[in-house]
Amino acid sequence: MIKLIVSDIDGTLLPYGQTELRPSLFSVIGELRKRGVIFCPASGRQFHSLRGLFAPVQDELTYLCENGAILYGAGREEDAPVLGKTCMPREASLDLAEDIMALPYCQLLVSGANVSYVCRCTPEYVSMLRDEKGNRVQILEHPREIQEDILKVSAYCPGGTKEPAQALGPRWGEMLHMAAAGPDWLDFTLADKGTGLEQLCRALGVSPEETVAFGDNWNDAAMLRRAGRGYLMEQADPELGKQFPLHCGDVEERLRAFLAGETL
Q1: pLDDT tens-digit series, residues 39-97
Q2: Which of 232, 263, 259, 192 is nearest to 39 (CA)?
Q3: Counting Cβ atoms within 10 Å, is residue 159 exposed (0-12), middle (13-18) or buried (19+)?
Q4: Is 43 helix (H, G, I), strand (E, B) or coil?
Q5: Where are the extended beta strands (E) located within the chain?
Q6: Contacts of 77 (CB under 8 A, 6+ apart)
Q7: How far is it, in rounded angstroms, from Cα 172 to Cα 197?
Q8: pTM for the predicted model, two decimal places
């Protein structure tokens, strides 16, 4: 019996280049809820950003945010319970942040629980985070001004992630779990969507075998492996496709088929 459906956002529910979900998806989520199935967005995005994206049903969902570094239960934003949290080592995170700021072709994002901290960045970058992504953003002179726990450190790489990964990977890749999160983001965190899914299942009293997950990128792989059934989007990297035999062309269509009686 399926009790939890977890889906990546960018490249999975939301094609790259688009900023809004199809309104028809919200009726599908509502029907799943009536049948006792929990729907959970799973993303590198911030909690506030995800709530805005799912505004019509935002209080009804659970959320796997910051690539699994923090999980929220259902409820209003100010009241939603934290179901799990994985912090990064502060000094290593700050050193990594300084290395990212030293790269001329990258911009920094440091994630707190529900705030994106940026430093020495362009106005266009801030606008992208606030207006396109819907993040809460705080501009600092230096990341050492951050007062809360650090959950994730990211490099925004508009020229692609290959060169930044080569520059940052030798020192930080293994220690802080470097992963590409789309064509222009590199994320560093001690959590991943797989550990996030495990924490979420424990918090909700759901077994991994009762979950279905959808994703499209390498940072979704751990989540897809831990779910009872993991679907990879058809447009994903063919090398990743070799690891996951279940493929999906359109998540909403697959969920509608499930509601009509097909097996997930």
Answers
A1: 999 998 999 999 999 999 999 999 999 999 999 999 999 999 999 999 999 999 999 99
A2: 259
A3: exposed
A4: coil
A5: 4-7, 38-41, 63-65, 70-72, 82-85, 107-111, 116-119, 137-140, 152-156, 179-180, 185-188, 211-215, 229-233, 247-248
A6: 47, 48, 51, 58
A7: 24
A8: 0.91
